Amino acid sequence: MAESNFIHNIIDKDLEAQKYGDKVHTRFPPEPNGYLHIGHAKSICLNFTTAEKYSGQCNLRYDDTNPGKEDMEYVDSIEADVRWLGFEWDNRLWASDYFDEMYDCAVELIKMGKAYVCDLSADEIREYRGTLKEPGKESPSRNRTVEENLKLFEEMREGKYADGEKVLRAKIDMASPNMNMRDPVIYRIAHVNHHNTGDKWCIYPMYDFAHPIEDAIEGITHSICTLEFEDHRPLYDWVLATLGRWEAPPQQIEFARLNLTNTVMSKRYLKAMVEDGTVDGWDDPRMPTIAGIRRRGYTPEAVRDFCERIGVSKANSTVDVGLLEHCVREDLKQKVESRNVVENPIKVVITNYPENQTEEMELENNREVPELGNRTVPFSRELYVDGDDFMEVPVKKYFRLFPGNEVRFKGAYFITCNEVVKNEDGSIKELLCTYDPETRSGSGFEGRKVKGTIHWVDARTAVQIKIRNYDYLMVDDEEGNQVMNPDSLTESIGYAEPLVAEAKPGERFQFFRKGYYIADSELTNDTEKVFNKIVGLKSSWKK
To answer: What are the residue numbers of the active site?
Structure first.
C-alpha cells in the first residue's frame, strides 16, 4: 500500500467531493523513442501504486505523436520494464488511436475562431513569440477567416504542403506571461510513415494538444506528470475547457522528477552514448536505464523500495545514488547465498598438510538467514587467497595474512604464514604456510584467538571466472563539473569455489567480503562465467 503524499491528499479531497464519483484512473504515458531509465521507474511506481491504493485503474499509453523518432524496439522494452517492476496495466493504448478525434477537435477549434493556419517558419514563430519581459507579435496569418483556415487545414491533411511549410496554432494570447499560451503550435506537417496508422496522416498533433485529449477520452481522473509540465498546465486546461466535450475533465498534477548524483537522466544523452559507442547498448550495466540496472542485477523490490523512500515532492532536488545502492544491498542480503571468490589470487601452500588429502569444509550460505542452509567446499594443501588479504609489510591495524601472522581461513583452520617465495621479477610466487589441525572450524576448539578471518578457494578445483566491476558513469572533475568516468568498467579474472561453475545467467551471489554479483544474462554460458558487480559491501577496512 503506497503511503500518503500530496497527490493522494488531492485525490482524497476529490473522492470526498465526488468530483469523479468513486473513480480513480491514472496512466503511464511514455513516448516510445528510447529506453526508460530510473527516473521513469519513479513515475511508473507512482501511477500504478496510486491506482492500486484506490482500487482504480492505470493505463499504459504510448504517446506516439512523433513517428520520426519512434520504434517498436522501445515499445517492447517499455513493457518488459513495467512488468519487471511488478505492474500490469489495465489497458494498453496508443495516442494514435485518437488521431481522428484529435483532428475533429482541431477543426472544432478553427470553427470557434480559436485556431488558425500559420505560414511562419519555426524560426519566425520563435522570433514572434517574444521574451519573458516582452509580449509576442501576432502572426500575419492570425486573422484569417474560419473558411480559409478550414480549407488550408484540409489541404495540410491532404499532403499539399511540405514539412514545415504550415502549422496549425491555437489562438490564445500573444501577450500572456506564460510563453506556452502565446498561440502554441498544435499540429505540424510530417510526411513520415507511422507504425500504427501507416501513411493515413501527414499531419500530427503536438504533445501539448494531444495529451489532454488522450486523458479525457480515456476517462483519466488524475494526470500525474513531472514538474517541467507545470507551465504547460494552463494550456492543458485551456484545450479541455475550450472544447467543452467532457463533463468532468481530468486534472494535471505535477511532481518533482528524480535526479540522482553521478547519473545521466536525459534520454537524449543516453541515446547519444549508445550511438557513439560510449556504452555497449541500452542495457549496458553502467546505464541508469531500467534494462541496464536489471542486467546489472538490481532487483525490482529494491527499486520500488527506493521510490517509496524518496517520496513524492513538489520541489526539485537531487538524491544521493548511495540511497539506491543501500536499498539494493538491503534487499539482496536477505535472499542471496554467499560464495568464495578471490581476485588477484596468491597461491598458499600448507607445507604440513598431507599432499593427497582433501577435506570438505562446511560453510553457511548466508550468515544472516540460517534458513538458506549450508554448503561444502573442498580444502586441500594448495589454496588461493585474495590479493587484498596479504601484505608482506603490513600497515597498522592490518589483521589479515602477513609473514609471522596467524589468521583463520573461514570455515577451515588457523593458518600461519612462514615464508614468501618470489619469482625472478620480484613478484610473489607463493606463500608457504602451516596449519594447526586442532583448530578446525566447528570442532569446538576454544584455544587462542586470532583477529583476522579470510576466505580462500581450493586451487585444484577452483573455477576461473571473469569479473566486471562498475563505477559511476559520471564523476566530478577538479572544477566540480560532471564528466565521463574513464574507469566506469574494469575487468579482472577471479577464482571461485566449484559450485560457481553451475551458475545460471541472472543468478545472484554475495562474493564473500567483496559484494553482490550477478551472472551476466548475455555473456554467461556453460563454458564461461561472467559476473557483474551489483553493489559493494561496506568494508570493515579500507586502504
So the answer is: 31, 257, 267
Of 217, 225, 214, 205, the closest CA to residue 28 belongs to 225
Confidence of residue 4 (pLDDT cuts 50, 70, 90): low
Which segments within 161-250 are labelled E, that is strand? Answer: 167-170, 185-189, 203-205, 222-226
Report how far Cα 302 is from the mean position of its chain's Cα atoms. Answer: 11
Q: What is the 3-state secondary structure (H, E, C) of 308-361?
A: HHHCCCCCCCEECHHHHHHHHHHHHCCCCEEECEEECCEEEEECCCCCCCEEEE
Confidence band (pLDDT; 50, 70, 90) for 477? confident
Pairing status of strand 482-484 against strand 337-339: unpaired
Q: Is there a contact between 158 and 181 (Cβ–Cβ < 8 Å)?
A: no
> Which pLDDT value is given to residue 110?
98
Place of cell 519512434: 70
Confidence of residue 3 (pLDDT cuts 50, 70, 90): low
Contact 295, 62 (CB under 8 A): no
499: buried, middle or exposed (CB in 10 Å: 19+, 13-18, 0-12)? middle
In the sheet with 341-343, reading across from the earlier edge strand, the strands are: 337-339, 508-511, 515-519, 530-536, 463-470, 489-496, 341-343
Q: What is the pTM of this model?
A: 0.90
pLDDT digits (tens, 9 = 90+) for 38-91: 999 999 999 999 999 999 999 999 999 998 888 889 999 999 999 999 999 999
